Amino acid sequence: MLRPALVLGIAGVFTTLAAGPARAGEADVVSVTVAETETRIYRFDVAVRHEDSGWEHYADRWEVLTLDGRVLATRKLVHPHENEQPFTRSLGGVRISSEIVRVRLRAHDNVHGYGGAEQVIDLAAKRLTN
């Protein structure tokens, strides 16, 4: 049974957009939408902004992690998005145990690695925490 989507990150989108363009080529997570599709199984729709310039410099993945850094799921991005910014990609079937109530999402690019804006999601309260 599909549960209603939790729309998260609208305030984060406006805050990030108001702050200006992405920092020094780092990939930023600018918004997140989460749906619990089954008990403790989630679908994440994540918008990433990065100044992709082709195969030599592009955002190549985003991840769902515990707050202490354990990777729960990875969405690989298989090509540059020079003309689609920010862009949204999805990942479903992410099982998260009931002990984990908050997760963070971060993006990666193939030159700088990590370092851009992250989002923290409180799954129990169904909202962004940052």
Structural class per helix/strand content?
A: mainly beta
Count up the domains. Answer: 1
Q: Residue share in helices?
A: under 10%
Q: How many alpha or pi helices?
A: 1
In the CATH hierarchy, what is the architecture at level 2?
A: Sandwich
Strand content: over 45%
Cα distance, first to last residue? Answer: 30 Å
Low-pLDDT segments: 1-24
* Approximate shape: elongated
Radius of gyration: 14 Å
- The top level CATH class name: Mainly Beta
Spatial order of the strands in the main sheet? 5-4-7-8-9
CATH H level: which superfamily? C2 domain
CATH topology: Immunoglobulin-like
> What's the main sheet like?
5 strands, antiparallel
Number of strands: 9
The pLDDT mean sits at 79
Encode the helix/strand succession as letters.
Answer: EHEEEEEEEE
Please write out the topology.
Layout (H helix, E strand, L loop, with lengths): L4 E4 L1 H10 L8 E11 L2 E9 L9 E8 L4 E6 L10 E9 L6 E8 L9 E4 L4 E2 L2
Antiparallel strand pairs: 1-2, 2-3, 3-6, 4-5, 4-7, 7-8, 8-9
Structure characterization notes:
- The chain has 130 residues and is mainly β.
- The chain has one domain (5-128): Sandwich (Immunoglobulin-like).
- The chain contains one helix and nine strands; from the N terminus they run βαββββββββ.
- A five-stranded antiparallel sheet has the order 5-4-7-8-9, with no helix packed on it. It has a four-stranded antiparallel sheet with strand order 1-2-3-6.
- A hairpin with a 2-residue loop joins strand 2 (28-38) and strand 3.
- It is elongated.
- The N and C termini lie far apart (30 Å).
